[in-house]
Design a protein that fits this description.
Order of helices and strands: EEHHEEHEHEH
Radius of gyration: 14 Å
Largest sheet: 6 strands, mixed
Helix content: 25-40%
Bound molecules: ligand AR6
Oligomer: single chain
Structural class: alpha/beta
Shape: globular
Length: 169
């Protein structure tokens, strides 16, 4: 199966690329962003400095440095307000732009965290639906990307992502 939910720490995954739930500065932060920067080492921050930040929904690529993954795709998630301020479209853009970079780079395996569902406060059900639907649509007819992991760091995320994935195909 090309798409799977994986329970665990994204920084430990031996995939071509892991996606980071970054902020606009791209210079690190808390949550999965902090974990990725700690595991990748200080060279990641140096590489990120050269990127000059990114807009909400945008994604930019660096190497993985000390991570087992070759690359990190830094995607800027959307802070959730009330769902009526274009949140869904901007969260979708995170996934869309990350997949686009992966295709350009010839990446065959990629892992996503549940972008925006932590510090950024996006409701888990809605965010998971967007994640699974967007990535599935953009990879189902693609031959380069042959493994996609949706990474869950807790029970609830694992169960919601699994439920959404089961329903899509
Ligand atoms: N591996 C996989 N998933 C993780 C890990 C990990 N090591 N650590 C946390 N998660 P969050 P956001 C999960 O808050 O909501 C940062 O400060 C976490 O349980 O990391 O997009 C950035 O710099 C949750 O399910 O990201 C931004 O300022 C998911 O990752 C802001 O937080 C996302 O939670 C972005 O907030």
């Amino acid at each position: 199966m090309k798409w799977n939910v994986h329970r665990g720490d994204i920084t430990e995954l031996e995939v071509d690329a892991i996606v980071n739930a970054a902020n606009k500065s791209l210079l690190g932060g808390g949550g999965v962003d902090g974990a990725i920067h700690r595991a990748a080492g200080p060279e990641l921050k140096e590489a990120c400095r050269k990127l000059g930040g990114a807009e909400t929904g945008e994604a930019k690529l660096t190497e993985g440095f000390d991570l087992p993954a070759d690359y990190v795709i830094h995607a800027v998630g959307r802070v959730y307000r009330d769902g009526k301020h274009g949140e869904a479209e901007e969260l979708e853009n995170c996934y869309r732009n990350s997949i686009e970079i992966a295709k350009e780079k010839g990446i065959s395996s990629i892992a996503f965290p549940a972008i925006s569902t932590g510090i950024y406060g996006y409701p888990l059900e809605e965010a998971s639906e967007i994640a699974i639907r967007t990535v599935y649509e953009l990879t189902k007819d693609d031959d380069t990307i042959d493994k996609v992991l949706f990474v869950a760091f807790d029970d609830k995320t694992e169960s919601v992502l699994s439920d959404k994935l089961e329903k899509i195909h």
